[in-house]
User: Fold these one by one.
Assistant:
Number 1:
Amino acid sequence: MDNKTKELVNKGVMLPLMEEFYTIQGEGAHTGTAAYFIRVGGCDVGCHWCDVKESWDANLHPPTHADIIVKNASPYKTIVITGGEPLMWDMQYLTSSLQNQGLQTHIETSGAYKLSGQWDWICLSPKKTKLPLEEIYPEAHELKMIIHNKSDFEFAEQQAAKVSDKCGLYLQPEWSKKEIMTPMIVDYVMKNPQWKISLQTHKYLNIP
């Protein structure tokens, strides 16, 4: 990568684009909504159950100018920026450009990096391996906790105590443990109705 490209990447004018695709949002508050996903490479949070580990190494994904990304996204309404961990990069240029096109900007993030960009919806999904920065908790519209084992319920409550009262609370079974954890989540939500269940419905529907 030459110095000029590095400078543009540092400014968020170019981003390590892994993939972009139009599909149905399968998780959380906007389940069932048509959305255009922009997956940005780079992540050091290191969830062992991550289903897109190929996104971790940003060097595998060529820097793409944000203007091209915006042009590709422009026919759609709801744009979801995901990763990897998208906040490893400056999101201001991309999101302001998307919003200038009248598009809705959503992000899915662990919150482990400084919040940048202009967002209509922030889905915060904290991970034990690299906790969110305190600044993002009051900004989150949705808290999505991945439940891999019983101890994750306690972690979920610890995280829920930090978000605002307006933030939606979701428990989602980790896919490889869904047969074990889903009944436990159902029971937990019935006893703690401030929570809702999130499922990876796109996997049940066999869509991207």
Number 2:
Amino acid sequence: MQTGETSQVLVHVGANVHRFRNAANLSQVALADRAGISRRTIIKLESGEANISLTGLDHLADALGVTFVDLVAAPAAAHADIRELAWEGRPGSAAVLLASVPAAKDAQLWAWVLEPGDRYDAEPDPEGWSELLMVSEGSIRVEQERGDVILVAGEHLAFGTAQQYSYVNDGDYRARFTRIVVS
């Protein structure tokens, strides 16, 4: 996650991490060990100051026994209508978590905008996770281990995310796409 306009979601993440950690009777050190992140990151998250990747939040959620959405949503938000800004790149590039519904574990609906020249580099998810992408405006290149795929408006892609992957806007125009993450 980036800072700036995402400060409100960082407040939610901080409060939620603190609440779930206390409910699980975990120290900051124990949570950091379980999640594979530093204690310093936990301290900064709980104070609303940390910059952590989306995958890092996934690891924290797993360590706490909750979903990614439980960590980023306002405590009173219904999972059917979340609308939390979770990532920003260059001015205008953003990812907004729109909603989540139960799946085997979790399913999330995202609205993404990538400005020309911007990219998002993801860390691998656990085995069994997948994404469905649908481009509604412009084009994106999805870099993945089995090769790059270029998607233009109206095209879609489904792929497993237990690999390094990136979204890249090589074009001259803004790209908008919908992303569904399923675990």
Number 3:
Amino acid sequence: MCDLVARTGRHQQRYRDGYRLVAGCIPFRYKYCAEECDDDPMKSVEVLMINSQSGPGLLFPKGGWENDETVKEAAVREAVEEAGVRGDLKKSLGYYCFKSKSHQDEFSPEGWCKAAMYALLVKEELSSWPEQSTRDRQWLPVPEAVEQCRHKWMEDALDVFSKWLTDKVSDIEEEDPISTPSSPLSPG
């Protein structure tokens, strides 16, 4: 049985300039892959997606940012509630505006939302979580995740994530003192 309970209702929901404020993340993990990765960071990483409750396609966990929490706390909470994972936020992936057909209210009558998205390195996958009865989770390589995204704005966040990941790997390679020619550790 799950000890955690998902927050419900809108009494704590944040709004700004007609937008419902949302926080979410792209949960990711590094997978072991020997030769088949070919130094391609996209082959050594998987992202976690969840099913949509309102139609086909997959989503990243996200939900309302509430008054009693920071945006980062909201992103981490949504990862636990919707996807059943805990981890460390590693990178802000930016803000994304979208229109929600199911979340129109007096403060956002047209359903406009603004989502702050983060990369979340998964440290723990829970066996029980608040929305497990309505959410299935699926680990996917990044190229497959792009094909499965239900919303264009989530594809855009995934693109920013992919660029960050590629740059991160490039930075590591550039800092490697063994392979840097000017390094005092280099042979010759």
Number 4:
Amino acid sequence: MHIPRRSLLAVFGAVAALGLSACSGPYSISSEVSSFGTWPVSRKPGSFAFERLPSQAQAGAVAEAQARIEAAARAALLKAGFTEAADAKTADVLVSLGMRVDPQERAPWDDPLWWRWQGSYAHWRYGGLGRIGFYHPSDMLDRRYDRSVAVLLRDRRTAEPLYEARASNEGMTQGPSELAGALFEAALSDFPKVRPEPHRVVVQAIR
């Protein structure tokens, strides 16, 4: 699955970060999940191998970012009952992955209650020693991140798509390293059942 160039650095930073807080311990990550497919009821998970599109197999930062995405998804696949094959030629299914982290600039006046900021286009504020400072609306922009992952499972022999799942959430930061794994776990939480309608899934992660 293609990763837009404008999102590559954000994706790389999201999966490479070691954490954004000195605190440690479990915490909850809520995601919106949708799943699709025709996974046979009688079929067991079996073995898997990751498959990369040509755009994901480039040397350098692209390949490094994709390797980190695969590392984040590996635990979710194992938890869903899969085992990792020695190579793609012996795997039962091939797994394609995608991840995006897109910054979204939002301003206070985007809120229907923007007037609570005491101004529309600009505002005055008292500074120290009785000084008055002028602040432009651009100084109040609030950056949030829309984060999403996608998983596609295909039968290796027939190339038939069997299962597709997506998970997304948003927050004030790109996210610590465990966030990517939690998103993939949420995406595969329904497997092998499918639930096309978006629904909330909460996953416990440890920082």
